[in-house]
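---------- Forwarded message ----------

FYI, see the Binding to TOMV RNA 1L (Long form) isoform 6 record below. Original note from H. follows.
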Amino acid sequence: MESNDSSYVSSPEAPRRRSPPPPKSPTSDSAEKQTYIRFLVSNAAAGSVIGKGGSTINDFQSQSGARIQLSRNQEFFPGTTDRIIMISGIFDDVLKAMELVLGKLLSELRSEEGSDAEPRTRVKIIVPNSSCGGIIGKGGSTIKSFIEDSQAGIKISPQDNNFYGFSDRLVTLTGTLDEQMRAIELILSKLSEDSHYVQSINAPFAYPVAHHNSMGYGPSAAVGKFQNNKEDHFDSMTIGVSDSHIGLVVGRGGRNIMEISQVSGAKIKVSDRGDFMTGTTDRKVTITGPPRAIHTAESMIMQKVAYAAEKAMD
């Protein structure tokens, strides 16, 4: 439930009050409308939400009346290694399901830490960029009121232009479960008034991948995405990366290459020092996996190469 927020833009926080007001119920009309919410969960924690043979998620759906969907293993939100949970249904059912899921994640965290005290955790909600204005309000007035009302910290990430076709932002809520749920109720109530947001409930549950140019070294970006068609066919391809650029591709302690492998779902092997492509000083980078995974990994590697080449020219 918790991860680094260093890149986030924090909304101005109002002074906290000692006792928050009782939750306000949405109007009967909005309570009956279909709505949805998407948020992130770590790949490791996703298993506890699903349960053995899907038992936990089925139980949560029965208790709440909402539909709960998860992205597949290794299918992550762009730029992260977090999977996506989408809860859809009428307003109250969505809130009930959200509370069940967050409560489960919180109980797992408590058991790991061996503490009965309720920690202040983080949950990251995915919101279309076009709908963020309604949450912020004029001069930040709406988000300030939400912070004061819920007692939760609320931060909205800047729009990320690094990923082609990507128009979602993250709204991070920090607090106890009760504080987070109050903030979620306020935010979802506001989002449910936005016709564009409500209509996007049926949008494809996926993120696009940009194609790099035929030379492979032009500007490119790849993102984790959902692969709706199961791909059992595995291929392997080897590309050459200049020995002077391989360090940035691999990253310190192999961090970059591990991230590329996790996001794409492909296995990546870099040749040893001195083991070059024939007739060159390019190191061999072998990518293995389904065709789409290979393409994603290749695009991400070439993006790193292009960045390394630009740095070398500066």
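H. also flagged this: Residues 2-25, 208-232 have pLDDT under 50 and may be disordered.
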